[in-house]
Amino acid sequence: MGTRLVSLEEAVASLVPAGATVGVGGMHMTAAPMALVRELVRTRVRATIENRRRVEGYRSMYAPDYPGWQAAQQALRAMGGMCRARGVPLVVAIFPLFGNPLDERYPFGELHEKVAMAAAAGGAHVVDLLPRYRGLRWDLLAVDGANDEHPNEIAHRIAARALVRTIDEVAPRAPGP
Asked: pLDDT for 96-105, tens place per residue?
């Protein structure tokens, strides 16, 4: 097995996960590998800036004058009207955006409220799933961590339990034979 040399940037990106604690040894401060410390800080600053852009990008899609949000509200009203006309309850599930902490730091709580209000205005029964995931590690609920943040089978199982309760309330099962 040969030795493989990698750049410091590649080593930090592949070996040091976000939030990790790294110990740097040395006899005194000047002996510490400052290039490593600088790369760790640079990587974290870059990730923080990118995350802030991502959060603001999502928030901008729910601005009152954003055409996509206006179309979504109109679609919710239309779906609600079609369901009412057919006597079918409309249930809307709101998933959190995995890839974010699922605790008090979750950055999209106000968007959940906004979507819930729009769905309810359309006549939907709303199930906000964020409380079901509170305190859980988002990376264990996503398909492939940061590469694919869609809900995996564990997250879907949690969602299904919450949705079954709501569906049973709004559309009770017919009595058995």
From this structure: 999 899 999 9
Report whether 112 contacts 94 (CB < 8 A): yes
Identify whether the C-beta of residue 83 lies closer than 8 Å to the C-beta of residue 31: no
* Residue spans per domain, the chain: 25-60, 62-170
Judge contact between 108 and 58, C-beta under 8 A. Answer: yes
Strand ranges in 22-98 using DSSP code E only, listed in sequence order? 91-94
40-45 long-range contacts (CB < 8 A, ≥24 apart) are: 40/12, 40/16, 43/9, 43/12, 43/13, 43/16, 44/18
Q: Which residues have a Cβ under 8 Å from the Cβ of 60 and sit 6 or more positions away?
A: 66
**The amino acid at 81:** G
In this structure, the chain runs to a length of 177
pLDDT band at 138 (very low <50, low <70, confident <90, very high): very high
